[in-house]
């Protein structure tokens, strides 16, 4: 028997998308999508949210990439703070800068692969503004 880590990432991601789709099917639909039954109560079938597995997968990838981007930006700020404080040697500064640039490039590649832009990762938090700085 193979462990989950031995399966290809696409298979694991598909399983997560299926599990999320099952979970979403238990949520009630938006009120405007629910047709009341004659007794004024919604029917079970009408209350189910119909989520497309491919949409769930893309949204999950978007959420994961958003978290990774937030962490990348936090690491970048911390690195700049350490450079400003003079805590790093010149070699450490160079290595840190190269690592952060490579991580940013990889994020752009992943966004391209999933049909997202870096701007798509900036979640709107309503009155609080956006999650990531512009």
TrEMBL record:
Residues 26-52 are annotated as: Disordered. Its main location: other. Pfam families: GvpK (PF05121). It is found in: Gas vesicle. Keywords: Gas vesicle. Coiled coil: none annotated. It comes from the Bacteria. Belongs to the gas vesicle GvpK family. This is Gas vesicle protein K. It comes from Streptantibioticus rubrisoli. The lineage of its organism: Bacteria, Bacillati, Actinomycetota, Actinomycetes, Kitasatosporales.
């Amino acid at each position: 028997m193979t462990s989950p880590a031995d399966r290809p990432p696409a298979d694991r991601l598909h399983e997560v998308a299926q599990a999320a789709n099952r979970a979403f099917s238990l949520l009630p639909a938006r009120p405007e999508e629910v047709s009341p039954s004659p007794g004024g109560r919604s029917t079970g079938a009408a209350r189910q949210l119909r989520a497309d597995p491919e949409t769930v997968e893309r949204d999950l990838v978007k959420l994961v990439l958003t978290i990774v981007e937030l962490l990348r930006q936090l690491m970048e700020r911390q690195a700049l703070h350490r450079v400003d404080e003079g805590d790093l040697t010149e070699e450490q500064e160079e290595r840190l800068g190269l690592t952060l640039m490579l991580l940013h490039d990889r994020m752009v590649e992943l966004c391209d692969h999933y049909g997202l832009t870096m701007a798509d990762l900036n979640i709107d938090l309503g009155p609080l503004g956006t999650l990531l700085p512009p």
